[in-house]
Specification:
Beta-Lactamase, alpha+beta, four-stranded antiparallel β-sheet, 451 residues, rod-shaped, HAMP_dom, Heat Shock Protein 90
Length: 451
């Protein structure tokens, strides 16, 4: 069985909707025309025509003219003709003809005919299409007792009604219903694309393949299959890069340990101290590289973590080291979902970064619109506007040296961004009023249990 593409499917849906509207309008027209012949709205008009026919039978020529003139108005035009008009009663109006005979007490041998005729712009011909009902008129022909014929053309509000609704309003309602059904069908066809977009967004945050079920049109299935394969390849590349970086860092740490042991066996001196400092810097760099590798490809955790408790732990640890750190907003629990170790790393990197550049850090916690807010501020030199996005890139530093005393290797904020985005949050560098830097982390709060 051949499968249609998404463009062909949407075109078929629109065409099917148009055909459905036409079929519904035809069905409504047929039903409404059937009701025309038997519904109460025609009863007063038929009674008026029947009464006029009785008067014509009872009056002479002079009185007939006066009765015709008295009953005539723009929506009701009667006249008497000598020859029988060529009027054929449609099947749907036959019940109305029987009703008219009854009202006028006509003998069975007297001719009676009813028809709906279109407006003058359409040539006064019988109504054949639904659109010709607009401005249509009722034509009634009754044979009088003297052999002449009473012809009445009745216009005005003859709009056919179904369930009390005008045909125009009813057609609009039916068209709206069909349009809604078409939109549902189009939504069903485009839903795989929406699912694909959501999966790609989740993959970008977690770097874990988000497989999407292949369904829909063939071209949509092809796109979904290609994206699924691409996710797997990207995940393998990132995993391989992480393994290689971790292996190199691990081996470097082994060699650094050996060098440190050899330095301990050498006599003390200025060169030994410099070498020991270099080894410390190299070890810190390796630790940062390992942390970056772990943050680049780590499975998301669904554990409930108290961010306030993590901030208090980091605050107490820094105070024990003699650092100038303040903490506010950590009195009440502030729960998020994620890895406790990873979020502790975020707090440590942000506080450490502030201490390295400004000698002090101010930590603040807050709840804001369903998010947990962790803000670390300092009174250091700040981050220039043009470099606020670049500071989160690997190995980028506002101060270009690699001296750890002036800020480190440039992986701290990169690790923060990797962890925060992996937890569905955001991190941004902002201005602090009065000078300095402000780094703000927003994480989704854990949903509170029911009750």
């Amino acid at each position: 069985m051949p499968r249609f593409g998404i463009a062909a499917r949407i075109a078929l849906i629109v065409m099917a909707a148009l055909v459905a509207v036409q079929l519904l309008m035809v069905a409504a027209y047929v039903a409404e025309r059937r009701q025309v012949a038997s519904s109460p709205p025609f009863t007063p008009l038929l009674g008026q025509i029947a009464a006029l026919a009785k008067l014509m039978d009872a009056f002479g020529p002079r009185e007939r003219a006066l009765a015709l003139a008295a009953s005539a108005h723009p929506g009701f035009v009667p006249r008497i003709v000598d020859q029988a008009p060529d009027v054929t009663t449609p099947r749907l109006l036959r019940p109305a003809v029987r009703r008219l005979r009854t009202l006028a007490d006509l003998a069975p041998d007297r001719d009676v005919a009813l028809a709906l005729i279109a407006g003058e712009r359409r040539g006064d011909r019988p109504v054949q299409r639904l659109r010709e009902l607009v401005g249509a008129r009722l034509l009634a022909v009754i044979q009088l007792s003297d052999g002449r014929y009473l012809e009445v053309t009745a216009g005005g509000d003859l709009t056919v009604r179904l369930m009390g609704l005008p045909i125009g309003l009813l057609s609009g309602i039916l068209g709206l219903l069909v349009a809604i059904a078409a939109l549902v069908a189009v939504r069903r066809e485009t839903r795989p694309l929406s699912d694909l977009a959501e999966a790609v967004g989740r993959f970008g945050a977690a770097l874990e393949p988000q497989t999407v079920r292949e369904r829909g049109a063939p071209d949509v299935r092809a796109v979904i299959g290609a994206v699924n394969a691409m996710q797997a390849r990207i995940a393998d590349l990132v995993r391989t890069r992480t393994l290689v970086l971790g292996a190199i860092s691990h081996d470097l740490r082994t060699y650094l340990t050996r060098l440190r042991l050899r330095l301990e066996l050498l006599p003390e001196g200025p060169q030994v101290e410099k070498a020991r400092a270099d080894l410390d810097d190299m070890r810190a760099l390796v630790e940062d590289a390992l942390a970056f590798a772990r943050a680049s490809f780590s499975a998301a955790s669904d554990e409930v973590v108290d961010l306030a408790r993590i901030a208090r732990t980091e605050y107490e640890a820094r105070r024990a080291q003699g650092a100038q750190v303040t903490l506010s907003g950590a009195d009440a629990p502030l729960e998020v979902r994620g890895s406790p170790a990873a979020l502790a790393r975020v707090a440590a990197n942000l506080v450490g970064n502030a201490i390295a550049y400004a000698g002090a850090a101010e930590v603040r916690l807050a709840a804001e619109d369903g998010f947990a807010l962790l803000v670390v501020e300092d009174r250091g030199p700040g981050i220039p506007q043009a470099e606020r996005a670049a500071v989160f890139e690997p190995f980028y530093r506002v101060e270009p040296s690699r001296n750890r005393e002036s800020g480190g290797a440039g992986l701290g904020l990169t690790i923060v961004r990797q962890i925060v985005e992996g937890h569905g949050g955001t991190v941004a560098a902002e201005d602090r009023p009065g000078g300095g830097a402000r780094l703000a982390v927003r994480l989704p709060r854990a949903a509170l249990p029911a009750g």
